[in-house]
Amino acid sequence: MLVAVDTGGTKTLIAGFDHDGNIVGEMEKFPTPRDPNEYVSVVRKKLQDMFGSQDVEALVIGLPGIVKDGVAIWCSNLGWKDFEAEKAFTGLFKDAPVLIENDANLAGLAETRLIDPLPVSALYVTISTGIGTGVITNGHIDPGLRHSEAGHALVDFKGEVREWESFASGRAIYQVYGAYGHEITDQAVWQEIAERISRGFLAVIPTLQPDVVIIGGSMGTHFDKYSRELEAILRKELPPHMLYPHFKQAEHPEKAVIYGCYYYAVDYLTREQA
Fold it and tell me: Whole-prediction pTM value?
């Protein structure tokens, strides 16, 4: 059994996988506790209740922030700093390794592995509570860019330099329009949302020049509502000599992290057994 935990800025999702990548049993979904100590207590109990009697080979936890050596250095949307996540969960399933990784990296890993042929470079962008990014090179999390946080890229928006996610994330869109994506039907509003989302891409695409851009997260589920407008803006503004990446909606916009945990665990166990 491979156990996956997707910790988001709003909700947490837990699932178990067999070695063929099939989810075993029911997934557990609940609001993410804001206090890290409460988070550990709640998640440990749920994991024990769900998998305590089973043979767990690896536990992978995705966190929405910068992760180094099992420690969440900073999770801005949760307000967590220097959270020792690996230490908090080590020993829960005997000797099973506890693997901690950035959630967008995990989501990008899963979604890129689904593309045939495998692109050399893929940029995964999750647009939900915040904006997270993962860069996948040759089917693996890029080691030189694994700590990148493009959602915090500083770009000009309406004459003010701001972080991309501060005006284009799902949370920001709700604050501006008073509605969630599934409640927005006015195409003029989607045009404005495309404009907001485009600002960050105009900074990130020339820097990374990915072959593929994958859109996930809660706003990724509505990609068809603004994809045409977004492409029109980017094609107009990006330098004409630059190869325009292929944009696609994530296959599992709100479950990509969970599937990424599975691939991450399989890769880890394969290396350990080699």
Answer: 0.93
pLDDT in tens, 185-218: 999 999 999 999 999 999 999 999 999 999 999 8
Torsion of CA 142, 258, 51, 26, to 10 degrees: -170
Cβ distance 120 to 211 under 8 Å?
yes
Tally of domains within the chain: 2
Same domain for 40 and 128? no
Burial 7-44 (b: 16+ CB within 10 A, else e): bbbeebbbbbbeeeeeeeeeebeeebbeebeebbebbe
**136-183 tens-digit pLDDT:** 999 999 999 999 999 999 999 999 999 999 999 999 999 999 999 999
Q: Tell me whether residue 264 is in a domain.
A: yes
Cα–Cα distance for residue pair 85/44, rounded to 1 Å: 11
Helices (H) and strands (E) in the chain, counts: 8, 15
